[in-house]
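User:
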Amino acid sequence: MLTRALSLLSVAFLFMFALLEAAAAESKRVMLLHSFGREFRPWSEYATTIREELNRQSPWQLDITEQSLVTARSGDEDPEAAFVEYLRALFTKRPLDLIVSLGAPAAAFVQRHRQQLFATTPMVFTVVEVRRVRYSDLTANDAVVALRTDHLSVIENILYVLPDTKHVAVVIGVSPGERFWRKEIAREVKPLEGRVEFTWYDNLSFEDILKQAAKLPPNSAIFWETISVDAAGVVHEGGPALARLHAVANAPIFSHDESFFGNTTIGGPMTSVRGVSSQTAAVAVRILDGEKAGDIKVEPIGWDAPKFDWTEMQRWGISESRLPPRSQILFREPTAWEKYRWQIVLTGIALLFQTSLIAGLLNERRRRRTAEVDSRQRMAELAHLNRQTTAGELSASIAHQLRQPLGAILSNTETVQLMLDSPRPDMEEIKTILADVVSADQRATEVIERLRRLLTKAQLEAQAVDLNEIVSEVVAILAAQAAARKVTINTVLTPSPLTVNGDRVQLEQVILNLLVNAIDALAEAGTDNRRIIVKTQFLDNDTAELTVSDTGPGIKPDVLQQIFEPFFTTKDAGMGMGLAIARTIVEAHGGRLWAENHLGGAIFGLTLPVAGQR
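Assistant: Predicted structure:
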């Protein structure tokens, strides 16, 4: 019995060993060959995801090993002989089914020693830029998953996100591959000469790079290419080196490789690690399944959709509105509502209870304010109706200008009459008063003459006036009317005075007309979002622009064609002269008045020559 049991046990062991050998025979042997080392980013990130994708996509058991080529750091090929012998000893008895090279140096190494080591072993070149692929040396056993890099678009992304950037510091090392890219980047960004100043850090040790990055001038940015070997010959792993740079840099850092994205770089268009790795694994599985490597053609992989780091955007004050279209924002911090929802709800209930206690007191104040606003609104409406009479918006302004000098003439004349009735009139004082009468008469004459010249399209004798000051005065006049109609008027004015050539009263009338029309349009639209934005800016050195935009329903296309025509109006009580007169005033000042629709409302604008340019 014992002999029989031992025999059965031996058979079982032999069967198990046979199963293990069969499984080993069915497994596929794959080698990942690194260019700089297994822990060197960005290649380490690609290696990790390629391994994951191979195990996910492969229907077979895979035996994946990794080897590193250290000669890529210096370009010295002398130690390669020993490395070749090492690989020969390692894989002679059990040949590889596939080699996946990561980076251009590893690919070049395999091509140099293909006959000695891997004459018939299929190979996939990956994580190598298309310019680094030696296509003439490819064999029928080689497939390529290349990258396509556009450094000009990377720098243009920096300028898009940070348009005030004047200086870009480029961090790059001195290994053979990095020297190649130093020349290529300089060539690609040549169109930006004169727009951006570039500083190259390939001539510095990494310690000196850190010192320089800490004291960059304002409006600077840092472009991180990679630094495997610095000018002092010191080898650096990309991840820790970038972290050290990020800790001291006084300017935002950008890169085009997703391996360096997250907590250190801003973002932008970049190569997707997962996308490249998935494509590489797919090609590898096809080769392991028996497809000829040389028959597999893959288009070079370009940039993925732009992605940006929310925390870095906050650190450097980059608005989400400055990002390119289709951008993804990652690492966004949760909002206060997401963090403290229940606390906010409970606090809101408490505040609501407190608010109800003081609502009675506030109601009385609100009623007083409403009555005041209604009173001012009626006054503004009466003024608006008055502007729509025979002379339109100009008559009120001209009457106001005439009233003061005529009143002064009357007052001075009465004074002179009284003085002449006295026994001993003061002739010197009478002369002074008469001089005031002449001056007031001249002011009244100037007002009438300006009106005559305007109506006859004669050239005005303009003076320098601050357009920003006029806007502020008109907005103040309309504040009560806007509040009554629940319209918010915001101004975005140039920091410095915007001086134009023009008649102050007439320009006030134009701006008043545009704002009143905008208020009417918003009130008639019945929307909750009633907002007007008055913006002034310099278009160039000799032209100023003022725009009045609203959030109303916009202007119908058929109305837009004739909105400036005399007697054309869309209002029930309108005469249709307001915009026509406004255009006449602007054109008389050498400017242009226009209107168009924009996203969410209408916009009226006018351009005028700045002072000294007419």
